[in-house]
User: Fold this.
Amino acid sequence: MNRLVILLFAVCVIYSVQGSVDKIKREASLSSRLSQETTSDVHSRARRSSRSSSYLFFDNRSGRTVQLWWRGKQWQKFIQLGAHKTIEINTFVSDKWRATDVETNEVFVINGRKKYRPKTNTRDTRAVCIIKRKGQRDTDIKAYIETLVVLDKTVRDQFDSDSEAEKYVEVLLMLSSNAYKHESLTQHGLKIDIIPSKIVILKNEVNFDISKRGNNLYTACDVMNKQEKVIGSKKFDHKLFLTRNQFGAAGFSRSQAMCSRYSSCSIVFEHGFHAAYLVAHEIAHSLGLSHGDFPQYSRYIMNGFVDSLLNSHRWSTKSQQTLLSNIRKYDYCLGNEASAANNYPYPGEHFSFEKQCDLEFNATYTAWKPSRWEPGEPCAKLRCRMPGRWSFLTRTTGSPALDGTECGENKFCLLGKCQEKPAQRTASVTRRLR
Assistant:
């Protein structure tokens, strides 16, 4: 009996050992196969990664839900895209794309072509692909940002009258609006206007605590919300506060808050017409745009340090696509057509060289004028002579003088050059001076 028990125990041990060995062999075999598969996968990815990449941004303006197709060796369905929707896709230049109506299978065009093959680009230069029906009329995406502008005493004190201060604000926002009319946006049919619907001039200053930077936006918003309640009859898409008091930054705004009754507001440090790009920058934040990592002097409006100039500014590809994606979200409030009360095609007719220097720096600066010893083009850059013992030096914003700035008898600045005034401008200015 004991021998039988011992024999059975020995058999169990042998089978147990054999099972462990088989398990080890199976695991080794599995590990080997996984290793081979991983190696094969790496090679496969390496082969795929050798193809040139392309990054696309599809904007469906057909008014219909479309089926996106891509073609490697054969056509395959990719994704459905609703009317007026957008999507980012990462692909290869060897792939072709097409779009069809989900219900009728009608073939639509992508950037005017039935079959679209992308070019090599990067994530930062992602190609915009607009989907339309064949023969569809081009339709612009329009937005009108009706803005309440509040300026405190520090800004008002720069002018001789309330009417001059209001005219300054109108020109400032016109320049901000012009930034949104840059070809980098209009090429996609995007047109955004910033309208100064109401201008309020405060009789006192608003003081800020520089140590509490973020709270200063809340302070400005609170002031403007109270003003909006006083006005009562109209609600605004955005509220803008202008001041010359320091508040810890060049500007603040609430991200993606456009059209929010209490949160759609921004504050900008006003320092002359150059501040127009700060206004455009902060309003863009309210529309959902973020800073880009751009080198200095890139002139991108969404640079963390705004260095845009009157004659040199642009929107990055990422900014373009974010605006195209987001602007439709606000159609319920920004789609109401509006226009500015006044238009200033030649704003320099209202603000001389001297006044522009006063606003950009301060009243102790004087306008630089070319002379025999210092020749030059007066309109190319706004140059302002420093005060006192430093009067032999000048400062400049880098931007040209405003179009319409008088630079000689019957001459004014236009596109950075001193030119003869057209006859009709000479007559209109003469009538206005009378």
In short: The chain has ten helices and 18 strands. The domain at 141-344 is CATH 3.40.390.10 (Collagenase (Catalytic Domain)).
